[in-house]
Specification:
Pfam families: DegV (PF02645). By secondary structure, this protein is an alpha/beta fold. The chain has 2 domains: 126 residues, Rossmann fold; 137 residues, Hypothetical Protein Tm841, Chain: A,domain 3 (2-Layer Sandwich), CATH 3.30.1180. Strand 3 and strand 4 form a beta hairpin. Helix 4 crosses helix 5 and helix 9 packs parallel to helix 10. The two termini are 20 Å apart.
Length: 302
Amino acid sequence: MPPAERDRPLSVAVVTDSTAYLPADVVDRFGIEVVPLYVVLAGRSGREGSDVTSAEVARSLGVRGGHVSTSRPTPGDFVAVYRRLLDGGADRVVSVHLSGELSGTWDAARVAAGQVGEHVVTVLDSRSAAMGTGFAVLAAARAAAAGGTAEAVASAARETALATRTFFVVDTLEHLRRGGRIGAAAALLGSALAVKPVLHVADGQVVPLERVRTSARALNRLVQRAADVAGDRPVSAAVHHLAAPERAQRLADQLTARLPGLQELYVSELGAAVGAHVGPGAVGVVVDPTPREGTDRQSAED
């Protein structure tokens, strides 16, 4: 998007929350508004990204007895953003968020939309997390940049959210259990410590897929799952991790080799809010099989 166009307010503004983990340059390029979640550790509460970092969360969870909790943005946080965008020239707002099964963020946005006016603010539940949400936001932002109506922008987000698949591996289920985010994955509790659970996000919940014996096999299964989704089609993908950059890079290299139609690949560390629930060592891959015309193959890392 040329700078001159970027400086003009779009007819449809796109909003998300901080758990989408979109690369900063993408957020800036498309003018996406990001509303942060709150993270509480060591007796203090702060906004994800600006006040509390991924490294702080990883250090805290790595200490025996360390505990980190998260809380959603308030409806007032969303109201302030929506009104600023509308007062700044936007006619409509499309707001795309983390699964309502995993967080109250979507509900806070929905309440805010009711206060501002549901005829001007459309709130969507991505039923996903991290770049599972982020790719839906990016699809919405591209549709808005192309001059699409609010309905077209929302439709692009919904289509991408439905198609995108998210797979991940954690070193332990304890952090997910503490936060109440594991859903059906609770069936895996009590497994031998040597077993590495491979999980995915299905219909907004964290669900177990399979169990493998080693971390290396777990990474291989992530690659295979991604390859099964991608096939020979053009796709976009993202790799996430928390305090595991080398594992994430190996995963990214394997995806590059295995996905012949890979157009975009983003590699980034999970932020504090999701990191608090998956714990250090977590690695995941998100595959979006709804590519955009004219998208060049690229790699981006936060």
